[in-house]
Amino acid sequence: MNRLSRTTLALGALAVVAGLLVACGGDGNEAEAPTTPSNCVTVDTAVSPEKLDLLTALAESFNRRNERVGGDCVVVRVQKKSSGVGMSALANGWDERTDGPKPVIWSPAASSWGAILNQRLADRGAAAMTSPDAQPFMLTPLVIAMPKPMANAMGYPATPVEWSDILRLAQDPQGWALYGHPEWGPFRLGKTNPNFSTSGLSALIAQNYAAVGKTQDLTSEDLTNPATVEFNRGIESAVVHYGDITMTFLNNWYRADRRGTALTYASAVAVEEKSVIDYNAGNPDGVLDPGEEPRKPKTPLVAVYPAEGTLYSDSPFFILDAPWVTDAKRQAATKFQEFVQEPANQRRVLKFGFRPANPKVSIAAPVDAAHGVDPSQPATLLQVPRPKVMVDLLDQWAVNRKTARVLIVLDVSGSMGDSAGADSSDTKLELAKRAAVQALDDFKDDDEVGLRIFSTGLGPDQSRMYLDLVPIGAIGQNREMLKRQIGNLIPTNGTPLFDVAAASYRDVLNGYDPARINAVLLLTDGRNDDGNSADDRRQESNLLTQIRQGSTGENAKPVRVFTIGYGADADMPSLRSMAEASNAAAYNATDASSISEVFTQVVSNF
Amino acid sequence: MKRLGALLLSVAMVLGAIALRRALRDDNARDSDAPEHRRSIICDNVLEAACRALSGVDVRSERPAVTAERLATGGSLDADAWVVASPWVTIAGFGPAQPLLETSAPIAHTSVAAVLRRAPELTSCHTWQCLAEPGRRVAHDSVDTTSGLAGIGALVAGHLHDGDRPRTDFARNDIDEDDGFDQWLNEVEHSANLVSRGAPVIRQIQTTGVFDVALGLGVDASGVNPQAVDAVVPPDGPTVAVVIAGNPDAVPLEQLRAALTRAGWRAGRGTRDFNPGALATLRERVKDVTR
User: Among A292, A529, A572, which would you mutate to test the B interface (most chain B Cβ atoms within 10 Å of its Cβ)?
Assistant: First the structure.
């Protein structure tokens, strides 16, 4: 090396030192650049709603641990996704614009959803995404929740209760008189729609196993066996209505309990054990809203574990076999999975009424007799059927479920012609028409459906408040006419809400069919506006009295009034009162763009 | 010679770098030595007069619902502290993942009061239970304000009475489980005809309007004309407390106490606080029926 180059090198080195001195300062006070998810391995996790709070809290604890994969930090992000909705989203390719970030971990309420997903994918020639050996996060068995006096009347717990006992009670015209309690009326069963709800799906599996006397290896042939079909139809005949979530039943039951009529609203509802614990603690839907105080029900529920066996909702941690799940993401997800299995974290699931999945952690309160459940049960566990059988189960249920008799009552008042929102070029009526037409496909052919529209000044002499465009009849014959009539609707005048609700309720009641779910599905975007506001309160009061009288007592002819408040100006308090008076549910579509989703939820009741 | 030149140049560079670094550090030091920034507080608009009496702070008056909704939707307080009636701090914490602000002990409190039209049927109607009876024409401020929300809250406590006492601790369940609640509330909300002119409604009751009873804070009831109306504080009614949320050190506490006392507030905690979550639910219900 010559002298010049040595000098150049020395100068260069000094320049570097000088530059570093300027840049670094050297006082050591600078904080490290904050870590953001963008430079970490992000583990997006889609979980069913009942464990959102718990897993969000666990993810926060995990993120504070600063775990690393290949030198990169790891961040877990949790989003809520109902089990059925998550399954459909994955089966349909998961659209991030509508479904949120693509999950690395999917944790539905039960492994059965993974089996259905794999079958749906296989039907399209796509590879499976979930492993049947996924590790459960926490457990809760499907039970039949019954008011304690009713369970005791059946001899429970000394005498085990079977699905066949339910069938016998459901089909005996004496109803509860069979057990010396005619005042309780007929046996009424609450069961959710298995296409949406894990409890509904587990109950469907359990009743089919019970029908064939097996605990494993349920086959597609079993499902179409005439005796199985008969058994299922018998059970379904006792259903009060279906629906997408068990909370509708539990809230209605609790409300009825506060009025002292819990025993005539429902005799039994298929729910998870955790829901019995929540209900008995005075928190029927498991969510304490701001300002809500848990108050124990007058009549507690007991968890009946069907003698034929039951299934666990096992909250599997599916680390997905999906193209977007890289090796790094998989490793990071595995670290989170190990974290949630740690005993200290597993003990946290007890607080939410679940059983720990880690066998090293003991079951403890509130999973105990004081909360209406039995930690030594279930004695018999049922095997999750093979994916193909799961899909066949759902198809068979669609055939065997209780039929419905529904009057769809649509508001065509002038305000329905308003824009559906700043982002939409459609009117509210246009959106509602599309949603209604789409929902008609969810009815089965022997459901009976009619269409009534309401506004002021209808009919040839412009004096009518409502018009029956399609009388109630089998939708198998009416479907196209219903679609055509809905498609032709145009907005008109006022909103005679209370009068039309009362008339619609009366009309369905007059044609009451005990073999069907009898219901009014009422959609409105406004409040009562019949040209005379002076009698609004009296009209509403009369309507509610009429509905309550018809819905209460052992001889009730329950006509459920499911209401949809549509758009920002809908009178939700009145719609809620109508729905609650009939032990149904009010649906909120104040965001008009949600109407399609809401219609699907409402029709899941039938 | 060349070596000497290079050495001198490099020494100069190092010295220059040190000088530059010192200059930068001095700049930073000057920044941190700057006098503390003037404190800013947001005041519940019913407390504006008391806040304006404080020295050394910048005061912004805001309807508490505006501040609460900003916080509940993930926004910042946008001030060092918030002087406000206590329920609003909890209501602001109901937003998604929004933690409660650090909150001081109650500084002062007042009762909820009613001002009655002079009429034979109202002469002895001095309980919340009586005031809440159907058919009364009731006026109150917006439920986005403390006086409005506390006023209708007190009336609900009378409606949901427990024997002969108002249920000041009513919960959301009590509202949900009362089959006739929405109808009752609807009647109340459409019963009076009194246009607010900015001042608390109980100070306007001697002006034109159709009503039997106006609701508000006890501190405002002292300003009414006793020749025209009866101001009452029904027994066993709720109280509303003032707290500081955020950085309590931003508020000159003794000055605030003194100013509140001058305005009619009583020192310390009240005896019957509302359930803030139930008030939040009630506020939504009122908005539902008045939309």
Answer: A292
